[in-house]
Design goal:
Blueprint: H1 30-38, H2 41-44, H3 48-64, H4 67-80, H5 85-134, H6 137-142, H7 145-164, H8 166-187, H9 189-196, H10 199-236, H11 238-243, H12 247-300, H13 305-317, H14 319-346, E1 367-374, E2 387-394, E3 399-404, H15 410-416, E4 425-430, E5 433-434, H16 440-446, E6 447-450, E7 459-460, H17 461-466, H18 475-484, H19 489-492, E8 500-501, H20 510-522, E9 528-532, H21 540-555, E10 558-562, H22 566-569, E11 574-579, E12 582-587, H23 589-595, H24 597-610
Parallel strand pairs: 3-10, 3-11, 6-9, 9-10
Antiparallel strand pairs: 1-2, 1-4, 4-5, 7-8, 11-12
Helix pairs in contact: 1-14, 3-5, 3-8, 4-5, 4-13, 5-7, 7-10, 7-14, 8-9, 8-13, 8-14, 9-12, 10-12, 10-14, 12-13, 12-14, 18-20, 23-24
The structure holds adenosine-5'-triphosphate and magnesium ion (MG).
Adenosine-5'-triphosphate binds at residues 141, 376, 378, 386, 404, 406-412, 452.
């Protein structure tokens, strides 16, 4: 994600802790699922009253269903026994009213929770997005984008569904089951005990099931993340895929992953089917036993027919609450996994607090690297740092070209200035102020960047360029920046600077994008400019034009410019050679050509065809 984001923004720093690792192993420790879910409380808190009222409404509605058997008992023992049709009608009418009230209450519950829970989901998503934006580049280097994406979509949806449904119904059904058993035991305690017997084996089965299901659910959700990554990559890389005729291989990779996911989903379904079967069978066997015992008791005259009817219909009314526990727990487990995955991103190391805006007096000192050392977070701790003992001083208004073989760490070095990565040793100062002692927003206002990979966002050309400037910048600044970058092609676009570009808009050529990125870097007239090989995609003539214009900008800017070709090097006052992670030579182009064999060699490759105009 090395785009030319120059807009001031604060970022989060990450430690390469294990928590930021995209987890491969599906480990969802049972103990943490409840604790994990509890972490949602701050999000649920604002809607707790509405959610609580909805739960109470649902409990009332659900317990109403337990009144049906009591009415039945009254009908059987009263009007039916007395052969009183009027009484039967009255009972039937009461049942109808009960049914309508129950349905109305459930509808009311839905209405109560739907809107606030959509709000909770939106809040979770907003927080995730905001956090992801503030995570350091090192985090994004490490995490597959699909893993982040799937957390913002599938996982959040699972969480919302959990809050709307399983959470409520675990409570509702639990209460209903307790109330139901109280009624059963009150009617006939011996029959009630028969129904209570299966509770113990059911509990054991459920806890075994939950532990197994947790593992599979985690695996499935991680696989969704992997699948998202493949889809995203194949969409973004569609040109490469087509260009190399790789669509078969890509489809194959996709198929394999989706087969894996299918396997995991089937495993989930099998587990669920197993527990469902047990949860249905065991209570029904118990009800059967109670039926036999009850009938014997009625025959013996120890029990009224009405009581048996009521008893059995209560038991049957409890079937759904009991049976649903299996999939409610499954959904809860999925939500726990989703929550865990959500917080894995949210917990990714918060940045070391931004330094407060300090009043350190700044002197005109330019850009200074003092003993800077850098090692990527995922490098072996005892490996040789990628950059070490970097001492450089770019004087105010000076332009320094940074030259080095490919892979020598030039891009890495430039990324240290706007703190996209943090130097692991030494310090960098801007006008005498340590960059780590300034708020990031201020730092990024001072320093503008353009990277090798020019990224444009789905917005108009003008918006893309003005991203590099403060809010007050307008048309005049835009025109000036476009002219510096020799981006006159903009005026020939269908709607000029208002033309939409980026993923959702017009596709621009590599050189056109590079010039817009350059315009973005210079539009804010920054004091410090960091350009990473900004002219690589331009033809020689355009390059010459851009250079001429850039030379004027560079006159009053302190700039660090990564250069591969002699023509770009000539923009600079001095050149530094980066080799083996160190600055091995500093001087003018001519001096280095004379004194450094490596420099001469690096430049000579270009000389054969471009040396003449240089
Ligand atoms: N995010 C990263 N994590 C770990 N290593 C990285 C990361 N980015 C780059 N590297 C490694 O750091 C080294 C220097 O990379 P860098 O991009 O700074 O080189 P460069 O000098 O800009 O090369 P080029 O001239 O090709 O642009 C490379 O070996 C690269 O593999
Ligand atoms: Mg580079």
């Amino acid at each position: 994600m090395s785009d030319t984001r120059t807009a001031p923004e604060s970022e989060t720093e990450s430690d390469p802790g294990p928590a930021t690792e995209s987890p491969e192993s599906p480990e969802a420790p049972q103990r943490s699922s409840l604790r994990g879910l509890l972490r949602l409380w701050p999000y649920v808190r604002p809607v707790r009253i509405r959610w609580g009222s909805a739960a109470v409404v649902a409990i009332v509605a659900s317990c109403l269903s337990l009144v049906f058997p009591l009415v039945l008992k009254w009908i059987v023992d009263g009007p039916v026994a007395d052969r009183d049709p009027g009484g039967v009608w009255l009972g039937a009418a009461a049942l109808l009213v009960l049914g309508i009230v129950e349905a109305a209450l459930f509808g009311f519950r839905r209405w109560l929770v739907a809107r606030p829970l959509a709000g909770v989901e939106a809040q979770l998503r907003a927080d995730l997005y905001r956090h992801v934006q503030r995570l350091p580049v090192a985090f994004h280097d490490k995490w597959a984008s699909g893993q982040v994406l799937s957390r913002g979509t599938t996982d959040l949806m699972l969480i919302r569904m959990f809050l709307a449904f399983p959470l409520t119904f675990l409570i509702v059904n639990g209460t209903t089951i307790l109330a139901g058993f109280a009624i059963l035991l009150a009617q006939d305690w011996s029959l009630g005990l028969v129904l209570l017997v299966p509770v113990v084996p059911l509990m054991i089965l459920l806890s075994v099931f939950e532990a197994k299901y947790a593992l599979v659910a985690r695996k499935a959700q991680d696989q969704v993340g992997d699948l998202t990554t493949v889809v995203e990559e194949s969409v973004l890389g569609i040109r490469i895929i087509k260009g190399f005729g790789r669509h078969k291989a890509q489809s194959q990779a996709f198929r394999e992953l989706s087969q894996e996911l299918r396997g995991t989903e089937l495993l989930k379904a099998r587990l669920l089917a197993g527990i469902w079967a047990m949860i249905t069978f065991i209570p029904e066997a118990a009800i059967g036993a109670a039926l036999v015992l009850g009938t014997i008791q009625v025959a013996d005259g120890g029990l009224s027919a009405g009581t048996l009817v009521a008893f059995l219909s209560t038991a049957l009314a409890l079937r759904w609450p009991v049976e649903s526990i299996g999939f409610l727990l499954a959904m809860t487990q999925e939500a726990a996994t989703a929550t865990e995955r959500f917080f894995e991103v949210m917990d990714a190391e918060e940045e070391a607090e931004d330094a407060p805006a300090s009043s350190t007096p700044s002197v005109r000192d330019g850009l200074r690297f003092e003993g800077v050392e850098f090692r990527y977070p995922d490098a072996e701790p005892d490996s040789v740092p990628l950059l070490q003992h970097i001492d450089l001083h770019i004087r105010p208004g000076e332009t320094l070209a940074l030259v080095g073989a490919t892979g020598s760490g030039k891009t890495t070095l430039t990324a240290l200035v706007p703190r996209l990565h943090e130097a692991t040793g030494g310090r960098i100062t801007l006008d005498g102020r340590d960059i780590t002692a300034m708020p990031r927003a201020e730092l990024r206002e001072l320093v503008s960047v353009a990277f090798e990979e020019p990224t444009l966002f789905s917005a108009s050309v003008g918006e893309n360029v003005l991203m590099g400037a403060g809010k007050e910048a307008g048309d005049a600044e835009l025109r000036r920046a476009l002219s510096v970058a020799q981006a006159d092609f903009v005026h020939r676009l269908p709607e000029g600077a208002d033309t939409q570009v980026g993923e959702q808009g017009l596709s621009l050529s590599g050189g056109q994008r590079q010039r817009l990125a350059l315009a973005r870097a210079v539009v804010g007239e920054p004091q410090f400019l960091v350009l990473d090989d900004p002219l690589s995609a331009l033809d020689v003539h355009t390059e010459a034009l851009v250079e001429a214009a850039l030379r004027r900008v560079l006159e009053d800017t302190t700039a660090l410019v990564v250069a591969h070709r002699p023509s770009t090097v000539l923009l600079a006052d001095r050149v530094a050679l980066l080799s083996g992670g160190r600055i091995t030579a500093v001087g003018t182009h001519q001096e280095l050509l004379r004194d450094s064999a490596e420099y001469a060699w690096l430049m000579s490759g270009e000389r054969t065809h471009e040396g003449a105009d240089a």
